[in-house]
Design goal:
Rossmann fold; 11-stranded mixed sheet; 4-stranded parallel sheet; binds threonylcarbamoyladenylate; binds magnesium ion
Length: 338
């Protein structure tokens, strides 16, 4: 499929079309060139689709905040191809190094003290002396980062506050016309964002539950991984807005019955009482598997939100393993809108 050259610097918001590029070798090359020219390209990672921009280019990063309509105090994750590139950007203590060596490439983000000459620009770090780094393991994200040879910031490729995208279609439905291109690499395998660990203090702390369960991290560091304290101002508690990931419809969590007019987000058996009266039902995992549920979570939320149900009853999800991160996202989506 021929791809028109994209003049990224000439792009103004709104009136440009967004190219959907197949994620083959040509597409990845094209995407890399667009990123290097200061453009915005969404690409798949193993967790969710990210909206990429050159982390070293403040103008590109500013365009990214604009496209996402994201409050600019929220710092971004810089993605790199390997640990060697990460070591140039931040200082790793023993624990951080152990986590990186065991779990990268993978769905883990480390918040670290930035090197004095860290190439990730101030705007991308929201002026902090720390930087969030991730080495994704995905057959499209990885070669893209290798081709660009620069850190790429990539928040989830949705409009701020919306549910994270797990397909290229989700990306275009939120950001069409506001970004240069989306590399279509099919649905993302994990479907839940990376786990974020703060390694800037004496001991690592969990900032955001995510695709790697807390237990797996504790096994690597051979220590407990407590939650980071929630602190109103410093953006040390990611997705700190309670109403992050908001759906239009109200969510009712741990529902043991379905009320009239409600859609149902089920989780295997047993089904909540009155399930047969749900206006629409989707099952996160018919076999009650939390990994499958994580992969389906955002797509199912979007699909149910697109029906005209005013409320979505969500069946109880267990809190162990990936259930912790799934429950975290559901709680945020259910919170009163700020
Ligand atoms: O799986 C993921 O992590 C996806 C894929 C695309 O990589 N990305 C993602 O990015 O979820 P985003 O921007 O939606 O969430 C990143 C979170 C934000 O809540 C932000 O507050 C936190 O990371 N963060 C970034 N830099 C930070 C820092 N220096 N200190 C504390 N938190 C930070
Ligand atoms: Mg996000």
């Amino acid at each position: 499929m021929p791809i028109r050259p994209v003049n990224a610097t000439a792009m103004t918001s709104e009136q440009h079309s967004t190219h959907v590029i197949p994620a083959d070798a040509n597409g990845i090359h094209e995407a890399a060139q667009t990123l290097l020219a200061g453009g915005l390209v969404a690409f798949p990672t193993e967790t969710v689709y990210g909206l990429g921009a050159d982390a070293t280019n403040p103008e590109a990063v500013a365009k990214l905040y604009d496209a996402k309509q994201r409050p600019s105090f929220n710092p971004l994750i810089a993605h790199v191809a390997n640990i060697t590139a990460a070591l140039q950007l931040a200082r790793f203590d023993d624990m951080a190094l152990r986590l990186a060596e065991k779990l990268w490439p993978g769905p883990l983000t480390l918040v670290l003290r930035a090197q004095p000459d860290c190439a990730v620009c101030d705007l991308a770090r929201a002026g902090l002396e720390t930087v969030a780094l991730r080495v994704p393991a995905h057959p499209v994200a990885h070669p893209l980062l290798e081709a660009v040879k620069r850190p790429i910031v990539a928040p989830s490729a949705n409009r701020s506050g919306h549910v994270s995208p797990t397909t290229a279609d989700h990306v275009t439905s939120d950001l069409r016309g506001k970004i240069d291109a989306v590399l279509d690499g099919g649905p993302t395998p994990l479907g839940l964002e990376s786990t974020i660990v703060d390694c800037t203090g004496e001991y690592p702390r969990l900032l955001r539950p995510g695709a790697i369960p807390r237990m797996a991290l504790q096994a690597v560091i051979a220590a407990q991984l407590p939650d980071a304290p929630v602190d109103g101002h410093r953006p040390s508690a990611p997705g700190q807005l309670a109403s992050h990931y908001a759906t239009r419809a109200q969510l009712r969590l741990d529902a043991t019955e379905v009320r009239p007019g409600e859609a149902l987000l089920a989780f295997g058996a047993p089904k909540p009482k009155g399930s047969e009266r749900a206006t629409f039902t989707l099952d996160l995992s018919p076999k009650s598997d939390l990994v499958e549920a994580a992969a389906n979570l955002f797509a199912h939320l979007r699909a149910l939100d697109a029906t005209d149900a005013h409320s979505i009853a969500v069946a109880p999800i267990p809190a162990h393993g990936l259930g912790e991160a799934i429950r975290d996202r559901l709680m945020r989506a259910a919170a009163p809108r700020s």
